[in-house]
Design goal:
It is a single chain. Helix content is 36%, strand content 22%. The chain is of the alpha/beta class. Helix 2 (103-118) runs parallel beside helix 3, helix 4 runs parallel beside helix 5 (205-218) and helix 11 (326-343) packs across helix 12. The radius of gyration is 21 Å and the shape is globular. It starts with 5 loop residues before the first strand and ends with a strand.
Length: 426
Amino acid sequence: MENRSFVLRGDICWSDRQKKLHCAQDAYLVCENGRCAGVFDALPQGYAALPLIDHRGKLVIPGMADLHIHAPQYAFRGLGMDLELLDWLQQYAFPEEAKYNDLEYAKAAYRVFADNLRRSATTRISAFATVHLDATVLLMELLEEAGIAGYVGKVNMDREAPDELREPDAAHSAALTVEWLQAVKDKCTSIRPILTPRFLPSCSDALLEKLQEIRKGWALPVQSHLSENPGEVAWVAELFPKAAFYGDGYDRYGFFGKDAKTVMAHCVYCTEEEMQRMQDNGVFVAHCPASNMNLSSGIAPIRRFLERGIRVGLGSDVAGGESESIFRAISDAIQVSKLYWRYVDSAAAPLSFEEAFYLATLGGGEFFGDVGSFLPGYAFDAVVLEDAPLNPLNTLSLPQRLERAVYLEADGKYLREKYVDGKRVV
């Protein structure tokens, strides 16, 4: 069995609950049975007998949390970026997802996805699969093998979808969901199921009622989309005239926080009433800045969410976003917040680097539990970066080195080691 108690020595950076960036030069990060025991300037005697892995001169940071990614869309990332959301779904996303009825195609595509994710700085994900049971099980198995942790959901959609993706009716969709849950119940330990109604337009009232029963019976978390695009928001208002706002449509079926741990992606056009419900119910926001730009959706009001105490993490939203790098999502989040401040709301201060790094680690990590920090007792998810080539003159402070590594996407060619729950996966 792999040793999950050891010490990493290096230049360590992490965030705490106060969203503050902590940096410790040439320090010691202790892993005890897959959990963090703390960061120390000098190694305590009680840990002196543990194996020491020397990464002096390298950056050691928490693993990144991706709160929103579409695994089956990875194969066409970087395409269709001239379209808005609803047209992009019809012309690119849905035709690609229909291919996953072919298990051989799914195996080839998902293997690339899982391997590339393994070699990124991402350690935790909340991912959409497709409506296909066998391909969804396969995805979970491949991610488990790759050492990634988090959630994967079989998508539910019984209306407003192409024939090859639309499930016959609510009963069929619900039955297939239960069959999937039973199939993966004892199969995967790091990758767990999450209920995934694609978005409100794709789910009939009858399906939402059946999924509500499944969620309660299996105690599942929930992921979906919320207030992403003006056309989508107007469409939801037509389809759900009794709902006070988009999120209220989910809340009527128990898919909007409270007893159901919930993450909603995008949240660009949330009204004050919707924000208040999100705050009251403890809904997580998956901020996907690249996708919001690429599909011309807009800029999410992240500062307003944070001021309200709404929990926010980052999402790559591949393939609306073109890259699985959460480092890229950090820089994108900062940049679009500046545009929001300059052109939309001068009272909404831009995100600082420290805040965006927090969102990518502890902010999103909390959706998975005690994840995303080196606080004692947290899951030992860590990434080691060889950033010396980015700093040849050796003149930068440790916080500056971290900022440069993120902006230059050092999670690509400069990633040296990666741990999830104390297990080395790279």
